[in-house]
Amino acid sequence: MSEWITLDTHHGPVRAWQVLPEGKPRAALVVIQEIFGVNAHMRGVAERFAAEGYAVLAPSFFDLVDGPESDPDALPYSPEGVKDGLERVDTLGMEKALEVVRAAATRLTHYGKVGTVGYCWGGSVALLAAMRLGLPSASYYGGRNVNFLDETPKAPVIFHFGAQDKSIPPEAVQAHREKLPQMATYVYPADHAFNREVGHAYDPDSAALALQRTLDFFTEHLG
After folding, report:
1. Predicted confidence (pLDDT) per residue in 38-77, tens digit
2. Are 10 and 48 a contacting pair, CB within 8 Å?
3. What's the CA gap between 160 and 185, in Å, rounded?
4. Which of 95, 179, 183, 186 lies at 20 to 30 Å from 71 by C-alpha?
């Protein structure tokens, strides 16, 4: 079952795409968007995790920038869409983003333990959810991660990067291993956004392996 619900946050209402599995959920996940919003791809990601038994919320973070009536599919996968998406995440800021994650996680607590999984900008928000909110998290190609690696984590994180990702150089990936050696950091023969089925960067083999590792991680830490 999937539908839009509304989260109440300190900064205003935020829609979230809710997907519930068949039967009793094993645990719960907050899916954290890329810079393009909770579009059809991100809703599909939420549905994939629900198919694995998790209750899922994918908050529409940009509602705090564009309003709750905005079109979640509005930003295209194009240079203009990238520009507009980056402007929105910079306007939103990490502190407000974390408050949205907190609201979603609180909403999910009656389904069991809660974790997060995030992609691109969302990968860095997922890292902060582990660092500051104590939520076990999977971080996919988080380009802003290096800004937060000196913080002390309150929960485990698993990291996924693409070896061909020019926006995240090898020394940035190595910094994860050096500063958070207790966390698993994986590199795949792929580009940025290798998990996204839409676009030239999609690498199905890397996406499948990263997903399996992520599911194993959540089985260990959420159940």
Report:
1. 999 999 999 999 999 999 999 999 999 999 999 999 999 9
2. no
3. 6
4. 95
- Using alpha carbons only, what angle is made at residue 49 by residues 8 and 165, rounded to the nearest 5 degrees? 95
Which own/partner pairs from 37-42 qualify as long-range (CB within 8 Å, at least 24 positions apart)?
Answer: 37/61, 37/62, 37/72, 37/73, 37/74, 37/75, 37/85, 38/72, 39/72, 39/73, 39/75, 40/73, 41/196, 41/197, 41/198, 42/17, 42/119
Q: What's the pTM?
A: 0.97
Give CA–CA dist 112/183, Å, rounded: 23
What average pLDDT does the segment 107-115 reach? 97
199-210 average pLDDT score: 96
H runs (alpha helix) in the chain: 40-51, 63-66, 79-92, 94-108, 121-133, 170-179, 204-221
